[in-house]
Amino acid sequence: MIQQKGSFFLLETDGTTYCFRVTEQGFLQHLYYGKRLSLGADLAALVPQGGLWPGDSSGWRRGGPAICLEDTALEVSAPGLGDLREPFAVVRTAAGDTLTDFRFESAEILAEKPPLEGLPSSLGGDAQTLRVTLTERRAGLRLELCYTAFDSCDVITRSARLVNLGGQPVTVLRLMSNQVDFYGQDYIMTTFNGAWGREFEPTRTPCGPGGVTGGSRTGTSSSKANPFVMLHSQAASEVQGHCYGFHLLYSGSHYECACGNAYGKLRFLQGIQPEGFSWRLEAGESFTAPEAAMTWGWGFSAMSRNLHRFIRAHVLRGWWRDRPRPVLINSWESFYFKFNQEGLLRLARQGKELGAELFVLDDGWFGKRDADNCSLGDWTTVNAKKLPGGLRDLADRIRDLGLDFGLWVEPEMVSEDSDLFRAHPDWILGRMEQAIGRNQLILDMGRPEIQNHLIETLTQVFEEARPAYVKWDMNRILTDTWSAALPPDRQGEACHRYVLGLYRVLEELCARFPKILFECCAGGGNRTDLGMLCYMPQVWLSDNTDALCRCRMQYYASFGYPQCVWGAHVSASPNHQTLRTAPLESRFHVAAMGLLGYELDLGALSEEERAAIAAQIAFYKEHRQTLQYGQLFRLRDGTDGFWQMMASDGKNALVLLFQPENRANAPALRLTARGLRPEAVYRLTTRPCGFQTEESEDILSTGSVLMDWGVWLKQGFSGVGREPQTRMMGDSGSRLYLLEETSSDKNC
């Protein structure tokens, strides 16, 4: 719900309050964001008392009482007028300066959420939107800020649009998507960093009078710095402490900072990476920043559940939004580039026998693609040696087996050794002498002729193969961002135009093929962001399929993303990325916490292993709705512990216990749960692990006991002695427990 009360604006969700006001001088003063308050009719109690400014600080006296912007929490900021903190907007005017003065002009509450020009945005539904308009009279600029309140998700989104109403062009050097000024600096900023193969490594940095910055400069949202970040109190845990989560619905280079000042304020900013960015805005033109989303929760768990609800309801869309995702078998780690049609069909038959529902043909099916140094771009030329009947023949044969057909593509890239590059060497981004990644160059996606070529080429491929699933890859980052289509003074637009061009291609293809399940892959998790999730309802979180690494990645990814968006595969042991061995059941248990797939040579397995996989897939299908769309709880702080997936009706749950390292003489384990009905009785049992000998749990307990105290599990192996019911788990060992509501109260 959004209300305007005089000069105050109040945005309330079911559990949060966001409030700001227009000062007497026309500035937007931020007052509060956090737990929902009972405010009554008078909001003036939220306004800090002041009027003077200390020492050598500067202020503003005209148009009302004196105000020191350096010591004022603001909704939007720009260079000048005494505010020395990082600015929200920086515009070089026709006069050559960047000193802009945006003041309040008007506000309106909209019943419908307006779309963003050229950019993906969240689906508004019945959410209200507040549009506040500010003007900069000297330069002739109008700044529109939009706030949308999603009541049941406890999420608020923001976006910004700058319009040049003057007679001269201006240059946008920075336009952020979100700014929140906090009254206090006792926060930790947690970013999720890493690299290929080790995505989502948390970095926790204390805030203070200085600045904490993060973000990406790769042209992508980046595995090196995800666009989801958190601000939280230093003592925050899963169940307590102030926790703010911030998302950016954008797939390019981004920027986040938390900068403090000398007066106890802390400014959080998020938006397009300003380093290297510029945008020439002609008279009458506008520039729109990506949408940002934010939430508050008491504890990490509450914050995550808010974001999970928001993403499932307002970011994901289309045919696949709420549908169960298929269990797939992918050809990549079975064959890499060395395959033929007979081998593919053999793998597909084996997958079908074990219960798979989708077969995915990965890289190597086009041109003369026997290695990663050629043929990217030649999508309509099928490798006749590997697929003598063509793509449609293979796809039809796969479908005849009772499986859906899926296909890998990497459309934004081109190989020097390709027909496309020989025909259009000027289509690349950057100059020919540039840094090379994975033996490939990048197409300049900002150019309409390239966008049109990809739309029509991929349409031809998809119409021929009729895939149910497409894995859209991008295996290198943008390093030399020079565009032959832009003049020298507009080269700062190249990266953002690239992203806008990509969105246009995806928008068109999703409209033409609404029932294709697109999965975003970018060298693994290089584009795990809400912008891509507006088009592709799932992402390939990492090329690293090692169970231990994946457990850690998925744990930290779950802070900002629900499990229904990340693909997770069971692969070979020793693992191809880490050489680590892990039990087959542990590989399954970790992958089952996401969208299950298999990526290994099924023909190389023993009969016992194949039988175990068949049992895994059958179990997963039985519990798929809970595993994919259930409410996720991290039952302990840290990756060494329990996760829980709770069914929507609260009557059953699955709990994963993963043990990264086996410690000698470890203490006994107690399993606790969340989200249960306190008065209900639940039965806890162990999922049988195929051919492995294991202990079995069968415990009856009330929801109250399970949540407030927990139940003791059977004793683990301590280093000496072993009973028939001793829990035997080594490194990367795991158990999956079932909690089912029962009417019996025996032994409770």
Structural class call reads alpha+beta
The biggest beta sheet is recorded as: 10 strands, antiparallel
Rg on CA atoms, Å: 27 Å
Q: Please count the beta strands (DSSP E, at least 2 residues each).
A: 38
Whole-number average pLDDT? 95
Helix content: 10-25%
Question: Which fold name corresponds to the CATH topology of the largest domain?
Answer: Beta-galactosidase, Chain A, domain 5
Give the second-level CATH assignment, the architecture of the largest domain. Distorted Sandwich
* CATH class (first level) name of the largest domain: Mainly Beta
Could you list the spans in which at least 5 consecutive residues all have pLDDT below 50?
Answer: none
Distance between the termini: 44 Å
Features:
ten-stranded antiparallel sheet; TIM Barrel; eight-stranded parallel barrel; 3 domains; Immunoglobulin-like; alpha+beta; single chain; Beta-galactosidase, Chain A, domain 5; 748 residues
